[in-house]
Amino acid sequence: MTLYEHLPADIREVVEAYVGDLRPLPWRTRFLLLIDLLQEKLETGAAAQHWRLLQQWTGIVTAILEHLRPDSSVVECLGLMSISFNDQWRAQALAQIERDPTVLDRLVAVCPDWEDIVNSVVEANQRRPIKAARER
């Protein structure tokens, strides 16, 4: 079962709309649009909610990847895979990034805030683990 299938109906509709818009675009454009979405969420959301917004964004990214078939040969897709909630994709991306340190440099060249985004996503997941939240 996919993360998408676990999402509420209204969020699935949002994901489907994004998938429709993103499907014809190259991964670099998809990546930048998803980064813009995160920045928009953080700018319009309350500061106290940033951790939750980061997790929601990561969930949306993961669900979009489920529909668009990740391509680990594309650095921007690899970046998104590395922060996804899909353990297999994340492990694959992190292993590839570890083997080729230029991947991180290329991601930062495309999105100078990438390292901060990754660190914020990791911290959000440590502060409020998704699995623990689901079990409550």
Report on the structure:
Helices cover 78% and strands 0% of the residues. The protein has helices at 3-6, 9-22, 27-44, 50-68, 75-83, 87-99, 102-110, 114-127, 130-135. The protein is built from 9 helices and no strands. It is mainly α and 136 residues long. The two termini are 20 Å apart. Helix 2 packs across helix 4 (50-68), helix 3 runs antiparallel to helix 4 (50-68) and helix 3 packs across helix 5 (75-83).
Q: What is the strand and helix layout of this fold?
A:
Blueprint: H1 3-6, H2 9-22, H3 27-44, H4 50-68, H5 75-83, H6 87-99, H7 102-110, H8 114-127, H9 130-135
Index terms:
136 residues, mainly alpha, 78% helix, 0% strand
Share of helix, binned: over 70%
How large a portion of the residues is in β-strands, by DSSP E? under 5%
Class by helix and strand content?
mainly alpha
State the helix count: 9
Silhouette = globular
The overall average pLDDT, rounded, is: 90
- Major sheet: size, sense and barrel closure? none
Please give the alpha-carbon distance between the first and last residues: 20 Å
- Report Rg: 14 Å
Order of helices and strands: HHHHHHHHH
Question: What is the structure about, briefly put?
Answer:
With 136 residues, the chain is mainly alpha-helical.
